[in-house]
Amino acid sequence: MNKLITITLAAATFTLGMCVAFYVVLNFEPCKVYDIQSRYLNYSDKECYTTSDVELIIFGKVLDYDKK
Questions:
Q1: Nearest to 30, CA basis, from 22, 42, 38
Q2: Is pLDDT of 68 > 80?
Q3: Global pTM exceeds 0.90
Q4: Are residues 51 and 37 in the same domain?
Q5: Residue 3 burial (10 A CB sphere; 0-12, 13-18, 19+)
């Protein structure tokens, strides 16, 4: 009888843990930084875009590195 209770408790704990893990993974919103980095990596490989075009697509405005 003790084995049955132990196995049932272990199975219930495992199932509850898996449910919580799936809930957390499915409702996770990635950080904006990851979105920006992945967009930059996807657009920078294309030869038809210049650097300023890529910055305009990703950041919404052209960054001016010379002005400080």
A1: 38
A2: no
A3: no
A4: yes
A5: exposed
